[in-house]
C-alpha cells in the first residue's frame, strides 16, 4: 500500500489556532513520514485544556502506515550514518536556530494544547533547543576507546556506532523538550527516528517536524507518527528494524513497552514516573524552604515528573513551615496560560481533576489535614486549585502514587535514619530535593537516598549537560549529558591482530 500524501494543506485547523501564530505553516495536522505529510484513516480531536475548545485534529495512522514509516527510517539510516559528524551537526544546528527563531509561535502552540503559562512554555522551548545544540556539539566527540592489549602484536579498540532506527515515544506534559532531548541525541550519533507524541499535544511535535524539514534533514531521517499509543507501540516493538526504544511517560505504560520490546531485544531507555521527596533540614530558613518547596511542587501545575510530592519537615518547625508554605502557595495565580500574571494553568483533562480530588478525599478520610486549597475558586472545569495537605502518611495515595497534580503533602520527621527510610519508601526513584546547610546531614542523605538525581538547595536541577534519569521503577538509562549517546549507540570492539612490532 502506498502512502496517502497530502501537500501542505491544513484544512481542518480551526480558527482557534491560526490567529495566534505568525507562521501558519507551523500548524500541521498530518503525520510526517519519509519527508511527506501523510493522512491516516481517522482524526483525533485536540482540545485546549484551559477552555475545552477544539483547537484542531491530528491524524490517526493505521498499523500498515507505521510499518511504512519504519521502512522509510530504515532505508534512510545507511546514508545518514555515513555522513560526517560535522555534516549531521550542521543540520542539527540549523534546526536549533529555527526553533529559537520560531520560539514565540512554538510557545503559543504549546499553551494552546498543553495549558502551561506562556512564560513556562517559552522556557521549555529554550530548554528543548539547548539539547539540540548540545548534541550537535557532542556529535564531534562521539569517541571510542583504545585498549592496552593483552594479545601480542595486536591493537584493541572500540568504535561507537549508531544503533539504527530509534522509536521515541513522548508525553504531553513537556511536549517539546521531551522530544528534542531524545531526538537530538539519536540524530547526532547517526540514528534515524520515529517520534510518537502524545495525542493530547501533537502540534508541538508536528511543528518541530516542519522545522526539521526546513533545517534539511533528508527524507526518512526524521518521522512523526500520530495515532493510538497502544497500536503504534505494539508495531514499533514488534519490528526488528527498530533497534532502540526510548520512552518518556508513566511507569505503567513503560512496563508494557518493556515486555513488548523484549520480543525483539531492543535497547530500551525508560524515563518514567517520579515521587520526589523534598527534605527540609533543621538549620534551614523556613520561609526560604517553603518558597523553594512551592516552586518545586507546582511547576507545570504539579504535572511534572520532578514535582516535590512528599515534603518532609522537622517536627520542631512543622507548623511554622505549613503556614509559610500556605502563604507562598497563595501567590500562585491560576488561569489561562495566556493571561498576564498567570503562573499555573489547567490540568491536561477532566480525569486529571477527578484524580486530584480522589487523592485529597482519600488523604482526608485517612486523617490528613486540609490546610489550604478551595476548589470553588477553580476558573474552569479542568482546573484544580493548589492544595496543601498536612500529616500525610505512607498509607495514603497522595504519599504512594505519583500524584501529578497540584496537591502538596507535608509530613514531620524526627531523625535522619527514619527520614531516609520514609523518603525511600516508594517504588519510584527519579529525583529528590534537600534544603539545608549541615554538610554532614546532606552527605548522609546524598548517600542514603535511592534517587537518580538529588538537588541540594536548588529547585532547578535539569539542563542539557546533566544525566537525567531515575532508578528503581522510575526508569532505565540517562538523557542529556555526555551519557545521552549511550541509549542510541553501541560499542563495537575490534582486535587488529597479527601486527608486526618494531624493535
Ligand atoms: N522521567 C521523565 O523524564 C519524565 C518526563 C516527563 C513525564 N514523565 C512521566 O510521564 C507521565 C505523564 O505522561 P503521560 O500521561 O503522557 O504518560 P503515558 O504513559 O500515558 O503516555 C506517554 C506516551 O505513551 C503513549 N502510550 C500510551 N499507551 C501506550 C502503549 N500501550 N504503548 C505505547 N505507547 C503508549 C501515549 O500516547 C504517550 O505518547 C508521568 O508518569 C510522568 O512522570 C516522565
Ligand atoms: N521537568 C522534567 C520533565 C519531567 O516531567 C525536565 O525538566 O526534564
Automatic annotation (TrEMBL):
<dbReference type="InterPro" id="IPR015590">
    <property type="entry name" value="Aldehyde_DH_dom"/>
</dbReference>
<dbReference type="InterPro" id="IPR016161">
    <property type="entry name" value="Ald_DH/histidinol_DH"/>
</dbReference>
<feature type="domain" description="Aldehyde dehydrogenase">
    <location>
        <begin position="37"/>
        <end position="492"/>
    </location>
</feature>
<dbReference type="InterPro" id="IPR050740">
    <property type="entry name" value="Aldehyde_DH_Superfamily"/>
</dbReference>
<protein>
    <submittedName>
        <fullName>NAD-dependent succinate-semialdehyde dehydrogenase</fullName>
    </submittedName>
</protein>
<feature type="active site">
    <location>
        <position position="271"/>
    </location>
</feature>
<dbReference type="InterPro" id="IPR016160">
    <property type="entry name" value="Ald_DH_CS_CYS"/>
</dbReference>
<dbReference type="InterPro" id="IPR029510">
    <property type="entry name" value="Ald_DH_CS_GLU"/>
</dbReference>
<dbReference type="Pfam" id="PF00171">
    <property type="entry name" value="Aldedh"/>
</dbReference>
<comment type="similarity">
    <text>Belongs to the aldehyde dehydrogenase family.</text>
</comment>
<dbReference type="InterPro" id="IPR016162">
    <property type="entry name" value="Ald_DH_N"/>
</dbReference>
<dbReference type="InterPro" id="IPR016163">
    <property type="entry name" value="Ald_DH_C"/>
</dbReference>
<keyword id="KW-0560">Oxidoreductase</keyword>
Amino acid at each position: 500500500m502506498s502512502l496517502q500524501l497530502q501537500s501542505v494543506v491544513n484544512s481542518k485547523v480551526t480558527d482557534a489556532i491560526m490567529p495566534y501564530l505568525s507562521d501558519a505553516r507551523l500548524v500541521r495536522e498530518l503525520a510526517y513520514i519519509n519527508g511527506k505529510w501523510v493522512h491516516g484513516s481517522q482524526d483525533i480531536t485536540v482540545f485546549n485544556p484551559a477552555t475545552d475548545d477544539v483547537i484542531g485534529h491530528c491524524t490517526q495512522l493505521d498499523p500498515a502506515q507505521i510499518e511504512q514509516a519504519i521502512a522509510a527510517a530504515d532505508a534512510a539510516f545507511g546514508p545518514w550514518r555515513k555522513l560526517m559528524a560535522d555534516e549531521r551537526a550542521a543540520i542539527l544546528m540549523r534546526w536549533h536556530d529555527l526553533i529559537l527563531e520560531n520560539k514565540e509561535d512554538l510557545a503559543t502552540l504549546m499553551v494552546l494544547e498543553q495549558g502551561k503559562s506562556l512564560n513556562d512554555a517559552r522556557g521549555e522551548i529554550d530548554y528543548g533547543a539547548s539539547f539540540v545544540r548540545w548534541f550537535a556539539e557532542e556529535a564531534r566527540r562521539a569517541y571510542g576507546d583504545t585498549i592496552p592489549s593483552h594479545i601480542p602484536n595486536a591493537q584493541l579498540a572500540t568504535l561507537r556506532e549508531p544503533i539504527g532506527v530509534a522509536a521515541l515515544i513522548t508525553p504531553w506534559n513537556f511536549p517539546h523538550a521531551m522530544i528534542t532531548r531524545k531526538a537530538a541525541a539519536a540524530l547526532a550519533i547517526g540514528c534515524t527516528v520515529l517520534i510518537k507524541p502524545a495525542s493530547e499535544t501533537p502540534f508541538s511535535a508536528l511543528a518541530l517536524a516542519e522545522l526539521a524539514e526546513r533545517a534539511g534533514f533528508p527524507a526518512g531521517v526524521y518521522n512523526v507518527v500520530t495515532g493510538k499509543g497502544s497500536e503504534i507501540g505494539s508495531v514499533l516493538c514488534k519490528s526488528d528494524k527498530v533497534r532502540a526504544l526510548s520512552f518518556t511517560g508513566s511507569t505503567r505504560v513503560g512496563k508494557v513497552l518493556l515486555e513488548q520490546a523484549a520480543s525483539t531485544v531492543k535497547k530500551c531507555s525508560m524515563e518514567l514516573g517520579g515521587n520526589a521527596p523534598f527534605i527540609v533540614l533543621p538549620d534551614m530558613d523556613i520561609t526560604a524552604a517553603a518558597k523553594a518547596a512551592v516552586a518545586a511542587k507546582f511547576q507545570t501545575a504539579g504535572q511534572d515528573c520532578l514535582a516535590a510530592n512528599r515534603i518532609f519537615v522537622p517536627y520542631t518547625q512543622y507548623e511554622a513551615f505549613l503556614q509559610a508554605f500556605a502563604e507562598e502557595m497563595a501567590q500562585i495565580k491560576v488561569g489561562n496560560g495566556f493571561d498576564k500574571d498567570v503562573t499555573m494553568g489547567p490540568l491536561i483533562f477532566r480525569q486529571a481533576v477527578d484524580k486530584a480530588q480522589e487523592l485529597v478525599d482519600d488523604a482526608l478520610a485517612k486523617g490528613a489535614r486540609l490546610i489550604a486549597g478551595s476548589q470553588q475558586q477553580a476558573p474552569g472545569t479542568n482546573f484544580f486549585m493548589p492544595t496543601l495537605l498536612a500529616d500525610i502518611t505512607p498509607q495514603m495515595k497522595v504519599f504512594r502514587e505519583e500524584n501529578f497534580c497540584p496537591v502538596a503533602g507535608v509530613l514531620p520527621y524526627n531523625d535522619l535514619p527514619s527520614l531516609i527510610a520514609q523518603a525511600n519508601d516508594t517504588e519510584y526513584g527519579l529525583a529528590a530535593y534537600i534544603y539545608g546547610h549541615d554538610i554532614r546531614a546532606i552527605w548522609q542523605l546524598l548517600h542514603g537516598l535511592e534517587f537518580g538525581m538529588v538537588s541540594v538547595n536548588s529547585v532547578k536541577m535539569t539542563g542539557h549537560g546533566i544525566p537525567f534519569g531515575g532508578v528503581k521503577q522510575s526508569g532505565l538509562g540517562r538523557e542529556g549529558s555526555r551519557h545521552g549517546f549511550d541509549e542510541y549507540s553501541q560499542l563495537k570492539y575490534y582486535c587488529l591482530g597479527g601486527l608486526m612490532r618494531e624493535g
